[in-house]
Design goal:
Layout: H1 5-11, H2 31-52, H3 60-85, H4 97-122, H5 127-154, H6 172-182
Amino acid sequence: MTAADPVYNATTVQEPKNGKWFIVPSEYLDKWRFGIKVAAVLFSLLAFILAATVYLCSSCPALYFFQFASCAAFLFAGLLLLFLATPLHRRVGVSDWPKLDFSYTVAIGFLIFLASTVFAFLHRWTEREQMSVAFGFIACVLFLADAVIFVKTKGWPLRSKPQIPPEHSETPEAEKLTVRSEE
């Protein structure tokens, strides 16, 4: 213990620790959207696993694109879910979580929809291919349902904030200085 410790201890306020690593509902994620996100992540994982077990492909690029999309959906949506459902989102330098959440969800939903559609039209109709396409479409519906619920509950996140015109953004003190300098 140094001589300076009592000085700093009296003025330093430590952040309260509540010990929670899982915070749902939070300011960015309610229980309904959390459940939908978890289901979407799990269905995209199942779609990827089933597509990865296809042995023979009649259209391999379609299969590979589907595997990429379902794996990306699982990884990115799972990472986003991890950030939104834990205090980790406070430690990352993201200033607009709602915009990021909505953009990721729509982009991933569109990507898995496109990959599922292409794979549905170009596969050989084996049982594993059918199940992976079905799980892909279910994941797509869940991602897009999450986006719709987001818009209905929180509004459109991509709308830009109204800008204050520069002539009205001055403080009263600055206005007084401007008036006096003009006199």
